[in-house]
Amino acid sequence: MPSRPISEGLFTWPVPASPARPLLYGTRCAACGAVTLPADAGRLRVEGRLYDVDLKDLRFGMEFEVVVRPFRVAEDGTVVYTFGFAPSPGDGRW
């Protein structure tokens, strides 16, 4: 079945094979470590669904990783994927 991301240019596609994970596109400054993500008109808000965690288990400072999950099936049968966030397995806080 064909597949595609919900929007081009948000995360790596096709999703790399395990154990590699999908990545949001962005760059890290070698001098200061600041991370820059693609943004429209210089503004950025990263929002995504949370997966694999109950609301009662959320804590400030938890580490999350980008995950890609099916979002819907288009009329032509193409599976449309979106990104979200899931707790990092090594976080130890959940």
Describe this structure in words.
The protein is mostly beta strands. It has one domain. Helix content is 0%, strand content 30%. It is built from no helices and 6 strands. The protein has strands at 3-5, 27-28, 35-36, 49-50, 64-73, 79-87. Strands 1, 4, 5 and 6 form a 4-stranded mixed β-sheet that branches. Strand 2 and strand 3 form a beta hairpin. The model has no long low-confidence stretch (mean pLDDT 76).
Helix content estimate: under 10%
Number of strands: 6
Report the radius of gyration as a whole number of Å.
15 Å
Globally, the shape reads globular
Contiguous low-pLDDT stretches (5 residues minimum) are none
Topology of this protein?
Blueprint: E1 3-5, E2 27-28, E3 35-36, E4 49-50, E5 64-73, E6 79-87
Parallel strand pairs: 1-6, 4-6
Antiparallel strand pairs: 2-3, 5-6
Short précis:
The chain has 94 residues and is mainly beta.
Which characteristics define this entry?
single chain; 94 residues; mainly beta; 6 strands; 30% strand; globular
